[in-house]
């Protein structure tokens, strides 16, 4: 089973016309890690303990299940974590018989289950831990994610992508989809080049003879997102994808992340400094503008990990498209 | 209305002439670039004191033909360069946005 699959990959790769263009393939990975959520990759079977449990009991849980950290919960909510290091200290300092309450780690780095998988990856790069507890919106512990879980889910998903590609290859002749992908780097405070992505995208869409309203909506969304990344993040990327159904513009940055995404969607809310404002930015209209020109709009953020904003403009439903904010 | 005629009526200085076939149909006055992006109509002249290259980028996104820089503000070379590249006219006047908006309205739509 595994061999046939492997052979099929080899066949695919050795083909003269490898179906993934060099331009497109890194994007497939990027697209997968932004589409998958932490909950898709995490382990749901968790071994927990209570804070009244002794350190010794927790050590036995670790041993029995071959794990190196035990979350401590109280009515389903995560209150602490006991690691192998904590157990070692307990042995060393003679409090292995005491309750976890006094000795567990309370300051935790956690992920939320609906964050994109890319956030988990940046956590593994940022922190020395090998696994993170995962909580839901009510702060209930719902899983644990390790770097191994991330890799496994990626392999599973990419495997699906390959299968997709194979089936698409089979009916290639009957369809004529055009995929265009572009990627632009946006650097912090680089107003010199901010606007570059939207400029290129506007040109490209005009060349493709897209309706002027669509062109304007896409380039406004792109410009706002680009400026946002330049102003508010440590730097990031703009991903542009066009197929026969839609235009998708994704802004992806590496931090610092937004505490309350609902707040930033309010018109007039801004954290921009005075200097930014003197340039005419920071009026708190960027994201509301972007949402208004989009048919689908999605924002995900996590403090310490980054922010992802996606604006989708559909090509097949111009009559249902939102007005571009023009007031009568 | 074409750029030279409009500039003449405003008594504005032409720093970059823009596209020859530009036909200015409306105007939008704002110093907030996101406001311009959200609300300016196509074929406008932007009336603003924001004299930097991002103003040109915004004008480009909303299909504006010209930027009118008010209060006689200094216009940096990179803004002029960007405008030349995009074929967007840059005009400058000593008057403020209020008076300029009035004059543009009179020029385009009469009294």
| Unreliable residue runs of chain B | none
Give the SSE string of chain B.
Answer: HEEHEHEHEH
Q: Helical amount among residues of chain B, as a percent range? A: 40-55%
CATH class bucket of chain B: Alpha Beta
Give the oligomeric state: heterodimer
Separation, N- and C-terminal Cα atoms of chain B: 16 Å
CATH topology of chain B: Udp-n-acetylmuramoylalanyl-d-glutamate--2,6- Diaminopimelate Ligase, Chain: A, domain 1
Main β-sheet of chain B, in a few words?
A: 5 strands, mixed
Rg calculated over all Cα atoms of chain A: 24 Å
In this structure, how is the largest beta sheet of chain A organized? 5 strands, antiparallel
Helix-strand string of chain A: HHHHEEHEHEEHEHHEEHHHEE
CATH fold topology of the largest domain in chain A: Heat Shock Protein 90
Helical content of chain A stands at 40-55%
Kindly report the name of the CATH homologous superfamily of the largest domain in chain A. Answer: Histidine kinase-like ATPase, C-terminal domain
Count of the domains of chain A? 2
SSE-based structural type of chain B:
alpha/beta
Q: Give the overall silhouette of chain B.
A: globular
Question: Which runs of chain A of at least 5 residues are low in confidence (pLDDT < 50)?
Answer: 12-23, 323-328
Question: What portion of the residues of chain B fall into strands of 2 or more residues?
Answer: 15-25%
């Amino acid at each position: 089973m595994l061999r046939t699959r492997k052979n099929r990959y080899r066949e695919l790769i050795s083909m003269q016309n490898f179906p993934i263009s060099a331009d497109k393939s890194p994007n497939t990975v990027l697209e997968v890690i932004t589409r998958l959520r932490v909950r898709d990759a995490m382990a749901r079977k968790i071994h927990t303990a209570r804070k009244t449990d002794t350190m010794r009991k927790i050590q036995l849980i670790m041993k029995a299940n071959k794990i190196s950290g035990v979350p401590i919960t109280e009515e389903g909510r995560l209150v602490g974590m006991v690691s192998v290091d904590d157990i070692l200290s307990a042995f060393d300092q003679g409090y292995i018989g005491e309750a976890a309450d006094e000795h567990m780690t309370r300051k935790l780095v956690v992920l939320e289950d609906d964050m994109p998988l890319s956030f988990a990856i940046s956590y593994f790069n940022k922190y020395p831990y090998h696994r993170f507890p995962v909580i839901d919106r009510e702060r209930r512990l719902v899983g644990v994610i390790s770097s191994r879980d991330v890799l496994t889910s990626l392999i599973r998903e990419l495997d699906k992508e390959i299968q997709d590609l194979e089936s698409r290859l089979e009916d290639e002749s009957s369809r004529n989809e055009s995929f265009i992908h572009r990627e632009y780097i946006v650097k912090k405070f680089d107003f010199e080049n901010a606007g570059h992505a939207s400029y290129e995208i506007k040109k490209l869409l005009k060349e493709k003879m897209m309706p002027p309203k669509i062109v304007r909506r896409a380039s406004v969304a792109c410009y706002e997102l680009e400026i946002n990344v330049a102003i508010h993040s440590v730097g990031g990327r703009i991903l542009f994808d066009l197929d026969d159904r839609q235009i998708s513009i994704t802004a992806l940055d590496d931090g610092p992340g937004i505490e309350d995404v609902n707040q930033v969607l309010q018109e007039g809310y801004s954290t921009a400094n005075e200097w930014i404002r003197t340039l005419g930015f920071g009026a708190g209209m960027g994201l509301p503008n972007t949402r208004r020109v989009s048919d689908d709009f999605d924002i995900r953020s996590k403090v310490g990990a980054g922010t992802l904003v996606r604006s989708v403009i559909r090509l097949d439903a111009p009559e249902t498209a939102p007005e571009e904010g023009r007031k009568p | 209305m074409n750029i030279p005629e409009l500039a003449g009526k405003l008594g504005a200085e032409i720093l970059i002439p823009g596209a020859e076939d530009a036909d200015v149909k409306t105007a939008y006055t704002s110093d907030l670039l996101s406001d311009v992006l959200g609300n300016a109509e196509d074929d406008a002249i932007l009336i603003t004191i924001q004299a930097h290259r991002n103003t040109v980028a915004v004008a480009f996104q909303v299909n504006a033909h010209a930027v009118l820089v008010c209060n006689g503000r200094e216009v940096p070379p990179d803004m002029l360069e960007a405008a030349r590249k995009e074929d967007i006219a840059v005009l400058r006047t000593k008057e403020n946005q209020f008076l300029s908006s009035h004059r543009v309205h009179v020029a385009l739509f009469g009294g």
